[in-house]
Amino acid sequence: MTYAEYPQVRIVSERLMNPETTERLMNLIIAVGGIRRVVLNGPRLPAVIPYGPARGIENPHVMRRTIRIGGQEVELQVHVGNVLLELENEEYIPKIKAACDEAFTTMSYSFKEGRFMKTEPTIVDFAKYGPDADKAIVGITDPGSRSGPIIIQGTK
Amino acid sequence: MAYKPQFGPGSTVVADNRRKYMNPAYKLEKMRDLSDEDIVLLMGHRAPGAAYPTAHPPLAEQQEPDCPVRKMVTPTDGAKAGDRVRYIQFTDSMFFAPTHPYLRSYLESYRFRGIDPGTLSGRQIVECRERDLEKYAKELVNTELFDSARTGIRGATVHGHSLRLDENGMMFDMLQRFVLDKKANMVKYVKNQIGEPLDKEVKAGKPQDEKWLKAHTTIYHSLGGVAWRDDAEGLEWVQRIHALRTKYGFMPEE
How many separate domains does chain B show? Predict the structure, then answer.
């Protein structure tokens, strides 16, 4: 869960980002440091067609790729359009903004500070995931997912 | 005096395009040349070259009841042969696609016979007899009503019309039925409309530039295009109809 003292920012690009752009942006952001949690958000790109008449057929998609963020391989499961960040403190915000300015050369983006991750699990979360759900990810992704979060080693 | 349809109000280029596309006397500009085989492949209802499966015997071979309406209405080719009813479905991006679902249904009703259009917010389906459908689909795809990047032929999993475009200017498609070949600046369909891989690619033409799209779109868009509020005539008519409907609800005595 989130704590009131940790600031959050949301980065929304003008267009859905290609994997190369996501990789460049994330590496610039990660280099700034001071990041606690990241959510890469966007419409989902499943590996297998999940429903409809072609259900079960493989779904090759050029936007679903494995990228490298901070030396760690990340398999994209969405076409990234929004990036949510939770930071250790506010002093990182201008540096993150500068990293975004450097990354977005061909399109504009919006940068907002605010609350974008859940602060408390809801009763629905409790009903869906039970009392032992990982509180670090409830509200940002499915805690029941087998894949779990990707941990990017810090520079500390 | 004979009735002359006006098709719709509006004093902007968007309204003009809407009127043009709906008007069956206006010849739609041909933009690309997909063959009959390409259209059959994209729709995926039958193998190219295969006979049309039938739902009933040809009309000439079956006993028709003595019905004045049947005598009055000439059946389409597909109905005459007893073809199955099949569909094509389109998704139109809100970012200046040449046409949009409501207009598709209007223009098809003006231009085609024997169709059953279904209109939803982001997609439009048209059903009719198979061989009629192939003829109509060819016109819908080969003319200015279609743009290879902002219009999608999608029978299932249509999501994408209201999403941001991707960096290459293509509308989002979870199944990625069409891909942009950057070198050739050409969009190619690699899957049919329901997402099954095609045996061969179907070239759907080059994506049009923003200038062309904005000159041919039928979508009002306050960000970068013609805003609905700027169409004085259109606005006046909608307000007039709204006012009349509201007053009618109170049963005014005149």
Answer: 1
